[in-house]
Write a structure and sequence with these properties.
Plant_Fungal_Acyltransferase; 2 domains; 16 helices; Chloramphenicol Acetyltransferase; about 500 residues; about 30% helix; acyltransferase activity, transferring groups other than amino-acyl groups; CAT-like_dom_sf; five-stranded mixed sheet
Length: about 500
């Protein structure tokens, strides 16, 4: 609920003023889907753990050089609010200077091992069994250095860069903290930044893709001109009084449900057992209406199985079995909509696409896990076509212009959960900081894991809120599978659901 103080005037602190405009700055627009109310209030704080000691200056210098490239300079700019209409824009220093750098950079060094540090010693590590850890917010002190923007107001009023980098060296490894506004990039947008960063660090700047979406919206091809195809869920938009009722009810129920944020590690063998069980329980016939995608009609992914499991656990805690469980799944269109995106261009920003998986609580409880996972897969297959993504983007464009929020499908009484699956992003694999290594991992660390040198052994993303909350909705993030095959998740769930989830996984 970090957005609340910015929306209720009596909870605000003293009024703040924007710093004077620098007349030499280049000014570029903030695009349609990048300044919604939800994104404005969200700062993302990433933390990556490495078993090697890395050179902080090499990491900082290489990222700064990326943001000084043509087009990429946009990511080194500052958010400002126009005085005439209040709309956001980005002011890019020309040139960047030590006083106005492209990246806010801080560093810290501890002459101890991580397991000797009071907070770093609590960072999640695989144990060989299903294990939960404190949620990502608990470690923000390790990811954010002095002066790192923590709120929307910090970005607007303090002339801060969009990205902050905080590198902490220990005797046995390195923690790399990276913060940015969600207005700047979604997951795949950040992945494009990381790819360019690694290429610059490796001396391969000639491989960095040109940056798209500076003056013209990089997502525009999804919603202009609007597709003639109707979205399959059109008519089920949640808006007006129905949206207000659902929102108030969701906040009230979240408060009473005692939502808790935790990180979950599922060992490779446990995930394999879960997937095998789900596939063995499939009895439903695939829908004949699904577009062919070259896969077995009975294909279900690990993400589908996890979506089904969390849907069922949500349903088990409902007071009425007639209530619908709606899972909104983040969906990236960059590789799924070839007519809207070029493969040789890097796109940051935020994609206006999603999949909605809906079923009644009764069905979620009665169906086998495999059949429920197949329903999730069918929702993805039906809604992730290029024209369906364009149809959703067109509806969301209208909604953002009118209400500054993307379209939601569902009903006023639904139980809602948000799911984001990062498995395909492969961040454990794509992040390669090996050129910045100044001291290799210990022999014990190398023996304990199959991780690649210079690649993270763990990571998570948080926001700067309090670790105890409050939290306002069920959130399921599948962060990825590490090099040993352990699957990592970050979730916000009721205490009862956490107990049910861990108990079920332990029983496999």
């Amino acid at each position: 609920m970090s957005w609340l103080p910015s929306r209720l005037p009596f909870l605000k602190g003293p009024a703040r003023s924007q710093v004077p405009i620098v007349t030499t700055d280049e000014i570029v627009p903030v695009h349609l889907f990048d300044s919604t109310t939800a994104l404005q209030s969200c700062i993302l704080v990433w933390l990556f753990r490495f078993n090697e000691r890395l050179d902080p200056d090499k990491l900082h210098d290489s990222l700064s050089r990326v943001f000084q490239r043509e087009g990429w300079r946009k990511l080194g700019g500052r958010y400002r609010r126009r005085s005439n209409d209040g709309k956001l824009e980005i002011h890019i220093p020309k040139p960047f200077t030590a006083q106005r750098p492209p990246v806010h950079f801080t560093r810290e060094t501890f002459n101890t091992r991580m397991d000797e540090h009071p907070l770093a010693s609590k960072l999640p590590q695989a144990t060989g069994k299903v294990t939960t850890f404190p949620g990502p917010r608990a470690f923000n002190a390790l990811a954010m250095g002095p002066g790192s923007p923590a709120t929307y107001d910090d970005l607007i009023y303090d002339d801060k860069p969009q990205f902050s980098l905080h590198v902490t060296n220990f005797t046995d490894g390195t923690l790399v903290g990276l913060g940015h506004s969600h207005m700047t990039a979604d997951l795949l947008g950040l992945t494009a930044v990381i790819e360019a960063w690694c290429q610059e660090l490796a001396g391969e700047s000639d491989k960095i893709k040109p940056f798209g979406g500076v003056e013209e919206d990089g997502m525009k091809g999804l919603y202009e001109p609007p597709t003639q195809e109707k979205h399959i869920l059109a008519g089920k938009e949640l808006q007006g009084s129905g949206l207000a009722y659902w929102g108030l009810r969701a906040v009230w129920q979240a408060k009473n449900a005692r939502l808790a944020s935790r990180t979950l590690c599922i060992p490779k063998t446990t995930m394999e057992k879960l997937a095998t069980q789900a596939k063995s329980q499939m009895t439903r016939q695939p829908s004949d209406t699904l577009p062919p995608d070259g896969r077995d009609a009975h294909f279900i992914s690990d993400g589908d199985v996890l979506a089904a499991l969390l849907c069922r656990l949500n349903a088990q805690n409902q007071s009425t079995m007639s209530r619908n469980i709606v899972t909104m799944m983040a969906l990236d269109p960059r590789t799924r909509a070839p007519s809207a995106f070029r493969t040789d261009v890097a796109y940051a920003g935020n994609s206006p696409t999603a999949v909605f998986f809906e079923c009644s609580a009764q069905d979620a409880v009665d169906m086998s896990l495999g059949d429920l996972a197949l329903c999730a897969r069918q929702a993805i297959a039906a809604q992730a076509t290029e024209e369906q993504m364009k149809a959703y983007a067109a509806l969301s464009a209208e909604s953002v212009r009118a209400r500054n929020m993307n379209v939601m499908f569902g009903d006023r009484n639904m139980a809602f959960q948000l799911m984001s699956n990062w498995l395909k992003a492969s961040l454990f694999e794509k992040i390669d900081f090996s050129p910045a290594i100044v001291e290799e991992a210990s022999s014990a660390a190398r023996a304990a894991s199959q991780h690649k040198r210079g690649h993270p052994v763990y990571y998570h993303s948080a926001d700067p809120g309090d670790v105890e909350g409050p939290y306002v909705m069920h959130l399921v993030v599948v962060m990825g599978a590490d090099h040993d095959g352990n699957l990592w998740m970050s979730c916000v769930l009721p205490e009862t659901t956490w107990s049910d989830l861990v108990g079920f996984l332990d029983s496999l």
